[in-house]
Inverse folding.
């Protein structure tokens, strides 16, 4: 659903740019707590130090999976948006930053999503999907039984809802600042209809990924924190925490480093190899734009001459090798850029915490 240059007029693009900038500023502040916790944080919020190393990986994984367009209807494909996945794994504020990093890398390096439309894309694909999905996710967890299965189910539904929500948001933006005279009713019907189908694919990918991480390290899933309550015993009329059971080496949880390496390898394989077999059909927005005439004023991307434009390496004639190299480079650049951003956010939080006084 990457909006290209020319779909939305300049004033509306500027307004969405301001909205996106404000959302990023708020997310940077909120991500400090998610990535490092605070002295006032609840027990469910603590453990952010486990999130920081994974946030850059989540961004890289979203980049990789977005290269895997899957067919949803005759002549139409879809791909992961990633807002729900990021919000559930690393938190809603960090999730907005994750998807925004991906969109920035795609727009600057791969000519995917207009640069003048970057505010539109961040507002639609990062902000709307994350906010809507996390609200649905938390609402479901409040009524479902506490447990890992409920987290996976809630992830599925949240992701499913987030995609047509993004389609609605685009339709509203287009109603305000669209550059062609097209019936908004027809645009809304077409956009929501096809993105409901894409939402099913998003839901499956999100639920499978969240379920896989929960299976090995549930403590790394932001949305699953606080679900496990420590056993309490009544001793002499008072409730006390039961001692933790010793964990045998065989039952020890998978290390964070192993999870990170496994996720990075999976991302490289998906982007470098599996992406070659992705559907070549236009995605939902491209298809609707062509059928309804929205794309008549689309402009060539400012980075169309980039060496990695259109997810291929310039001067590499073999299509499989060109696409694979571009995917691997994209994953590498995204994980480095994302990790740098989240390291800086966490480091800023550490410097903001006042020193503890030990005076007598």
């Amino acid at each position: 659903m990457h909006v290209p240059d020319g779909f939305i007029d300049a004033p509306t693009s500027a307004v969405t740019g301001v909205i996106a900038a404000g959302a990023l500023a708020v997310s940077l502040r909120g991500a400090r707590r998610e990535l490092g916790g605070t002295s006032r944080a609840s027990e469910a919020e603590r453990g952010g130090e486990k999130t920081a190393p994974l946030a850059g990986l989540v961004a890289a994984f979203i980049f990789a999976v977005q290269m895997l367009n899957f067919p949803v209807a005759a002549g139409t494909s879809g791909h992961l948006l990633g807002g729900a996945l990021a919000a559930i794994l690393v938190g809603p504020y960090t999730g907005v930053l994750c998807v925004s990093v991906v969109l920035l890398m795609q727009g600057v390096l791969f000519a995917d999503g207009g640069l003048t439309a970057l505010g539109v894309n961040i507002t639609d694909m990062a902000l709307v999907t994350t906010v809507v999905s996390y609200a649905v996710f938390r609402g479901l967890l409040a009524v479902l039984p506490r447990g890992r299965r409920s987290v996976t189910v809630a992830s599925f539904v949240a992701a499913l809802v987030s995609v047509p929500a993004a389609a609605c948001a685009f339709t509203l933006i287009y109603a305000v600042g669209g550059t062609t005279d097209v019936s908004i009713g027809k645009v809304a019907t077409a956009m929501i209809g096809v993105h409901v189908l894409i939402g099913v694919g998003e839901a499956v990918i999100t639920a499978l990924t969240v379920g896989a991480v929960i299976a090995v390290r549930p403590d790394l899933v932001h949305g699953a924190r606080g679900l496990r309550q420590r056993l309490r015993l009544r001793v002499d009329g008072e409730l006390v925490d039961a001692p933790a059971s010793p964990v045998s080496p065989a039952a020890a949880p998978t290390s964070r480093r192993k999870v990170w390496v496994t996720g990075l390898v999976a991302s490289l394989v998906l982007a470098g190899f599996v992406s070659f077999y992705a559907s070549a059909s236009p995605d939902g927005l491209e298809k609707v734009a062509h059928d309804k005439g929205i794309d008549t004023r689309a402009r060539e991307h400012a980075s169309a001459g980039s060496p990695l434009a259109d997810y291929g390496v310039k001067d590499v004639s073999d299509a499989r090798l060109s696409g694979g190299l571009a995917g691997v480079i994209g994953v590498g650049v995204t994980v480095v850029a994302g990790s740098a951003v989240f390291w800086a956010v966490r480091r800023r939080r550490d410097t903001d915490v006042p020193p503890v006084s030990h005076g007598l």
